[in-house]
Fold:
Amino acid sequence: MDRRLFLTSAIAAAAAPKRPLNVLFVVSDDLTSTALGCYGHPLVQSPNVDSLARNGVRFDRAYCQYALCAPSRASFMTGLRPDTTRVLTNGPDFRDFLPNHVTMPQLFKNNGYQAIREGKMFHMGVPGTVGTAQWQDAASWTHNGSPQGKEHNSKGDGKDLTPGIAPGVGMRYVKTPDASEQADFDAANRAIAHLEKHRNDPFFLGLGFVRPHVPFVAPSEYFDRYPLSKIRLTQNPADDLNDIPALVARTLGATAGNMKMNEDQQMEALRGYYAAISFMDDQLGRVLKALDGLGLRENTVIVFQGDHGWHLGEHTFWQKRSLMEESAKVPLIISAPGKKGPVCRSLVELVDVYPTVADLCGLKAPGNLEGQSLRPLLDNPKRPHRSAAHTQLNAGKTEGRAVRTADFRYIRWTTPEETAEELYDHRKDPREFTNVAGDVSYSKELARHRALVPKQL
Structure:
């Protein structure tokens, strides 16, 4: 090539506008990190999440800001803490309090992106409002899609393991022969169609899977992957609950005491949960395959996360709404062009996701965001990030606040009549069986952690 022509071509290439990075933002409902292969579960089959973790950064100490769906989602979708959004139950809409705030997808929409929702991104009542746009914040999206699913009305063999407990909380499962009846299958189909349609447009695609939220609905083949003979129940010391404040059980309600399930029913519940995860994972795999087939992977930031953790019998608790490790910790994986793991052990929060995605895509985020970009950790996962991660919870007049530091978890419960505390030393007690708040040898750590939990964050 002529030298002048080469230089001209090189200058032109350098001057060409860089194509904006796309975003695929995937949220799995009620997914705990302890039930994924890449986080060390010996039985659960989650090959597509695992592959994403191998090709990105897996965060091993990521924490939600509220251990319940609507408050957590309002927090990470706005980049604000629950005290700021004022969404503290599954009822309110954050717009009732913050009518002009720019959400994460809205930032991309305002910057010329196709901002696409398919599935549960903000709060959605499962199973009650699956397939509707309630709470999904039309202002955030250029396309506001609601995949359809029959939930526990699906065809197939099913069982109610906790009679008397309402849908959305009770442990029910259905082995269905028809995957096409499920919202997650429809969500994946719709997401693939959007990728094909907008392959040449910058996009922010919010893909919300409702599984593994109850009811556990999946084709029979997914249940068959988990024979009851291979399932192991969580083992807790007989005296595990003796040092936990009495008011904790009141905050949990029906999800304490193994939800009155016997051991056989608990194993069936675990099988349903695992089956729902594997079904969700396969839908994720279909979307990732389409992304690769369209040549979009190298120009797309992929975030995969849960909305909060989930108990699977630890401390005889099930589901969310506790402030212990299993409920507060979440799976979080970020795969971005040029950023590859292996694993980050720094403390991070879901409120950090919004500023991270904006930073990676070169967009100026609102100045009032309360998270911190994780981009430096994608470059060097060994970097420190936070000294503490905060999670909170309200149950009637009871308020709970927890702080996770490098070696401890501290929980403070307050009611108009009483205050109770928990402190767990993760160096000796990673499963939080022994509350050392009353141990005088921990008085300095107790005082230090008390100071980390203000009345409002």
